[in-house]
Every structure is written in structure tokens, then in C-alpha cells.
Amino acid sequence: MKKLLLASVFLCYLILPIDTDLGWHLRYGQQIFQNHQVFKINQIGFFLTNYQWKHAYSLYQLLTFFLFNYFGFWSLVIGNALLLTTVFWLIIKTFPKSNTLFLALSFIFLFLISLPVTNLGWRSQLFSFLGISLLYFLLLNKKRLFLLPLLFLLWANLHGGFILGFILLFFYLIGKVHKKEKITPLLIIIFVSFLATLINPFGFENYQEIYRHTWYPLNQLIAEWVKPTKISILLIIISVSTLFIGLISQVKINKLLKKKNFIFLFLSYLFFLILALKARRNLAAFGLSSVYLANHLFQFQAKKIRISKIIIFLIFSTSLTWRLTKLPPANPGWSTICENSQWSLPCQATQYLKGNPDLCQNIFNAYEWGGYLAWHLPGRKIFVDGRMPTWSTPSGKSPYTIYLEILQAQSGFEQKLEAYKADCLLIGKNTFLDLELKNNPGYPWEKNYEDEIAILYTLEKQP
User: Fold this and answer.
1) Rounded mean pLDDT of the chain?
2) Long-range contact set of residues 63-67: C-beta below 8 Å, sequence gap at least 24
3) Given Cys at both, which of 46, 189, 207, 425 links 457, Cβ 3.0 to 4.6 Å?
4) In sequence order, what DSSP letters do the residues of 176-214 get, joined into one string?
């Protein structure tokens, strides 16, 4: 039955990659693969061209480009399914004696609560989801702790969420100290793990970018950093209520505190609960912590429960039916991404620009289109994309805020476009900027191309 459940997980996550950041990740990966070096400065954009961006994506970018370059989109579809199936396999391996009913319910809960992270397919955040799963697995099986440095070496080059791993290690240390166990070997392993994270193209500077993310008000800028939806809040309430029942059902609190790994799992749960309430991108990690703490509290032992078989068969049949009706085409391409993307990508407009190579060099673009344009128009430079919200600017404003001020045609927008040397505007139809230019012909911009999604303005040539 567990194998059938894993097959269900695999089927559910055969998803086309529609993350808007995919394009610029491919550009970075291409640079590493072909030129054996990383982009040290912003060579994709014409805004903040000399900005030195330190990031933890290099291995992810290389892997993504390699898969895409040699095996196409299907490799990213299958890679996504394998990655998330591995997350659930680790849960099974961590609790091999758990009954199938608990595992089935855990999958349903994890699938629903992690949708804000997993619904876009292959993306870097999923590697932190996997990293957290691996860390739980290693910490709850102490004989494998020597693998921690290797985990952090890889994690620090896949996604900046590796910092969460050190917070979990801190909670694990608290539990060890509470039980008066020796911590010297663990401290050595943690220190070596920290040194391992410095083996990356930017060294310690990676931590500077992570620090910026801890205080920057991204919840005011980016959708996945806003608070969870009502449905997600309901799932959080279900989790908290269930685990509260598990806590109060314990006979003695002192006995519970002495229980192996309880302090570690409980502190981890509280930490991810706080993060989940702040930003929906943290819901997947919260879901994992819920599953691990629930199993620890309730001690779900392997039993033959007839209803578990029924639930797993329902999960499998539902996932199989759903996947057969929404299976990606045999040979998906960028046109398939354009058709399936929720971002209404400027695919036709991009083809128009490809056919006019002398038209436009510096494109002021819609934020969600930045990654797509960065990949498809490598000879041009774009204004903004998903790398940039936390970048520092001379004005102290986020690049995303500056982008919005221009897109909303706020006072002085034309001077900003001139100062940044934009010679094209590729934006959505009927945005504030589009309407401003249409209703006021005095601006030095003329419409060059238009379709159902995008409109292209070019700077009028001076006589």
C-alpha cells in the first residue's frame, strides 16, 4: 500500500514548470555550463547593471539548464515529481512502523497545505522542502549525522533556505542539552556543516543576501510572501487543534518533555507555524513539521486498518484520473508553457521582437515577464525580474517599487525611463502606463506592436 501511495504522489506532481523565474535561472545555468563561471554582476538587465548579486542558486541553475538543455521540459516535469516523491518517501523511512492510514492522511494534508509552493512545478524552493525532509530524517536517525556536512554543502548551492536547517539544528541542540546528553560531537558536525556552506561561488557573502531577506518587507511586494489564504488558515487550525489534542492527552507533561526528540520537534513546529502565518511560501515546511510532530505524539503503529486501504485506493484513482486528463503533451515546448501559464506571458510579442533584431535594446518589462524575456531575448536587456526585489538602490527603494511607480504612471515616470535609458516598453494592455500613453499623445513613445496580452511601445527617434 505504501508503494501505491508513493505512486500517487508521483502522479500528482507531474506538473509543467510555470515558475516565472525559470528563464533567468536558465540564463545563469547556461553561463555556468558553457563558460564555467557565474554572473557576478547584473548582465541580464539595464537597471542596476553593476549590482553584485550574491545568491545560493548556482547548483540549482546548473542542474536546471543541464536537464532542460539535454532532455527538455519533460525532464523538469519528471524531476519535480521525483523530488516531491522523495520527500514523502523520507517520511515513510523515518517512521517505518507508522500505519498506512496516518501516511494517507499526511499526504492529503501535505498536498493541500503546500500548494502555494508546489503548484508552479520545478523551482528552487522545492530543494529547501527536500532539505528540511532530509534533515529531519538524519536527526531522527542519529547514526547518519556524519552526512550533515554533505547535505549543507549541496543545500547552500541549491537554495538560500539552508539557513532554516541551522535553526532546526539549534532546536535539536536544545533538546540534547535538556536531556543532558553529550553535545560536543554534534557541535563539531554543525561547525563542519557551516564551513561546508562556504564552498560556493560567493563564500560568506551568501549570508548577506539571506540577512536582507530576514528584514526586507517582501510581504508588501511579492505574492508568495503575503499571509496565507483562508483555506490555508483553515488547514493550519486543523493542524494546531489536532496536535493540541495530542498534547493534552499526555498523562504527565514532565514525561512528555523527557520523550525522545519531543523538544526538537515541538520547537520546530512552533517556529514553522510562525513562519507560515507570516508568508504562504512557508506552508510546505510547516506541513512537514506537523506530520513529524503528529506521528511523535500519537505514535501511529502499523496496524491493518481496512479504511486505510480504501483511502489509498481513492487517492491513487483520483490522482491517476486527474493526471490522465491533465497530462503534459508528449513533447512540451515554450508554446505549451505559454498556454498553461497563469501569468499570460508575452509569447507573440517576443516572437515579434525576435523577428526584428534591431528593435529595442533596453526593454522596460512587466515584472512577471522578466524571466521569460531574459531567456528568449538574450541579445536584449530587461528592466526587472524575480532576482531583484531586495536589491539596494541609490534611492533606498526596492527595484520592484520603482518598477511599480513607472508602471502606474506616477509623477516623474517619463524622467525615470529616460534616466534608465529604456528604449522600449513591453507591458500588459490597459495598465496605467498603457492608458496614460494612449490618452496623452505628447509622450515620446509610439505603439509598435499589440496583441491580446501585450503592447509594445518604442521610443520615437529624434529628428
Assistant:
1) 90
2) 63/29, 64/22, 64/25, 64/26, 64/29, 64/122, 65/25, 65/26, 65/28, 65/29, 65/30, 65/32, 65/33, 66/29, 66/33
3) 425
4) HHHTT---HHHHHHHHHHHHHHT-STTGGGHHHHHHHHH
Residue 19 has phi, psi (to 5 degrees) of: -65, 130
Residue range 209-216: average pLDDT?
A: 85
pTM exceeds cut of 0.90: yes
Q: Which three cell numbers, joined as nine digits, stand for 34? A: 558553457
Strand pairing partners for 45? 382
Question: For residue 241, how many other CB atoms are within 10 A of its CB?
Answer: 10
User: Residue 64 CB: number of other CB atoms within 10 A?
Assistant: 24
d(CA 181, CA 179): 6
pLDDT tens across 9-36, in order?
Answer: 999 899 999 999 999 999 999 999 999 9
45 has pLDDT over 90: yes
pLDDT at 423 over 80: yes
Euclidean distance between CA atoms 374 and 414, whole angstroms:
24
pLDDT at 98 over 80: no
CB 346 within 8 A of CB 376: no
CA quadruple 114, 20, 278, 174: dihedral sign: positive
User: Three-state SS for 2?
Assistant: helix
Which helix (H) or strand (E) segment is 312 a member of?
A: helix 306-325
